[in-house]
Amino acid sequence: RVEPQPSTATTATIGTGSSSGSGTTTPPPSPLPSPSPSPSPYHDDAKVISVGRIIRRRSPSPSKQGKKKRVGGTLGSAGSWSAASCSKQQALQSLLVALVLCVTVFFLAPTSPIHTHAHHDPRARDVHPLVMQGSLAASRPLSRYPRFFGLSNSSFVVRPTADSPVQDTLLLSGSVHYFRLHPGTWADRLRKLKAAGCNTVATYVPWNLHEPRPGEYNFEGIANLLGFLEEAAEVGLFVILRPGPYICAEWDAGGLPSWLLRDPSIVLRSSHVGYMRAVTSWFSRLLPMVASYQYHNGGPIVAMQVENEYGNYGTGDPQYLAQVRDLMLGHGIECVLITADGAHVDSLLGGGVAGALKTVTMRKDPAHVFSELAKVQPDGPAMTSEFWSGWFDSWGAANHSVRPAKTVMSSLEPMLNSGASVNLYMFAGGSHFGLRSGALVHEGKFSPHVTSYDYDAPVTEAGDLTHKFDLIRRAIGTYYPTAAAGLAVANSTKRAFAPVMMSQSASFFSHLDAVTDGPSVAGVAPLNFEHVDLGADAGFVLYSTRLDSYRRHERLTLHSVHDRATVFVDGVFAGIVERDVTAKARDAIFVDVPSDGAVLDILVENLGRINYGAGLHDRKGLLGPVQIGRHALIHNWEHR
């Protein structure tokens, strides 16, 4: 990888694409050509490096100029032979050796590699991204398109137009989640990403947001994925799309729809027939929509991710990853495919799939991280698909999670210096709209995430620029100066609202019809949220039954509550039973039952399904029996 020389860099401008009504976008302008009149894109005194549509010229290090020895002479700074010390015989010998080497490489190499500079004729050879290697490589080379984004042996490469040379590039990216922001703020966050010097935006696609019920699809409002892609193209950014089907992301169930759990035998994130049937149906809707937004089709998408951190999951079902990849290929996905896993050899091997570039997720120590990556993938560009700029928050934590800016920069700057591709996760914070936050099991305890997803990101949940943003922009500008780094951006506008005085209230139980969906559902035993007859995804379910006459101060036990139950007897609050969210969590309370019996109401709240690890099959509600006293189990329930 090329080591940048910040002191000699110069800046070129950046163009932007424009949206079209057909679902694809107009190809953005190509990288600016070199000012040199020479027909060769490789100049005597500078090397051209493309960062997306960002061009950087770099002079060679003075210590390295004119010192590379060759047979019969020296290699000058222009890359031409100096014949001062060469005889004619030596020159002929050198020419003969060069010809023999060229012929040998031509006949022995199965696919000619792309060099670290642009070709004189970009159509002279095919560029085969890793996703197309093997049986598909010969029939589907991306270089048949007027423009394309692909892979060489050691770098990403781009040809913005049919008349442009193929150029090395890298991805300087930041994660901005469209589903965590109001659509009216998308352009603002994307402009701030570009103003930081980045050329790419990365986003997940949460399946459960787009298909809340089987066969019912939502692509409106915060779910308007295509609108977000068009905004990215308008700003002039590449896109890395991460469609899962599992995404983690501290999002409810890692983006998997809760209705999958209606099947008691289902095995999520596996080649289980029922699970893959649902994935196939979802991808058959999603992938054709986004295929036309790939870079070679005129859109901004340059890469798509296969699943997410599957090597960290530990189940070892390589057939599953191959099935997900094949679904992508079968629906016209021809851009670069990547996988993302932790920086351990076992994780990278377990989460990899043939035809996809392996990338790493990380917090620090890039030297170690990329050495682990090189053990399993010696070729291909080095990339971290998640470099964590902050961290998320969970209920019960003492403070908001922060990651100091200096700590972030201590890892980011070495990566920029090495020429690695980086995605800042997150670049801009957001919110869990619609009770969509996920949860973890941490140290044996259930740990739900808070509504805010500020993440201590360079751009806050409110859209404000932080000191971390300033340092990142300065660092990127040092190594890869661009006109975009000078874009004018500002903090979001704040409004002051007058105090609102609450003068009235209403009883929850007297307005049940107004706050519940549809008629009540009966069951002998309590039903979980995901049951086909109930179909509750997020929020609350009210469980109601009739208690007969029991002794006063009787123990009421709720076995396996997921996640928080508020108990009422005849409409009067009696206590709370919850999953092991806190050290004070308990599974029983004491209630007083009148001699003539009472109505028992249990309002159960879903605090968020587990989004990472072995607990993904996280059904909600009263999952076990409800018991009063030592032996009596309560039956015959109504659910609303």
From TrEMBL:
Signal peptide: none annotated. Residues 169-477 form the Glycoside hydrolase 35 catalytic domain. One of its GO terms (biological process) is carbohydrate metabolic process. Its EC number is 3.2.1.23. Keywords: Glycosidase, Hydrolase. Residues 54-71 have a biased composition (Basic residues). Residues 526-638 form the Beta-galactosidase 1-like first all-beta domain. The keyword Ribonucleoprotein does not apply. Gene3D superfamilies: Galactose-binding domain-like, Glycosidases. InterPro entries: BetaGal1-like_ABD1 (IPR048912), GH (IPR017853), Gly_Hdrlase_35_cat (IPR031330), Glyco_hydro_35_CS (IPR019801), Glycoside_Hdrlase_35 (IPR001944). It catalyses: Hydrolysis of terminal non-reducing beta-D-galactose residues in beta-D-galactosides. The keyword Hydrolase applies. Residues 1-75 are annotated as: Disordered. Transmembrane segments: none annotated. One of its GO terms (molecular function) is beta-galactosidase activity. Residues 26-40 have a biased composition (Pro residues). Residues 1-25 have a biased composition (Low complexity). Belongs to the glycosyl hydrolase 35 family. This is Beta-galactosidase. It comes from Sexangularia sp. CB-2014. The lineage of its organism: Eukaryota, Amoebozoa, Tubulinea, Elardia, Arcellinida.
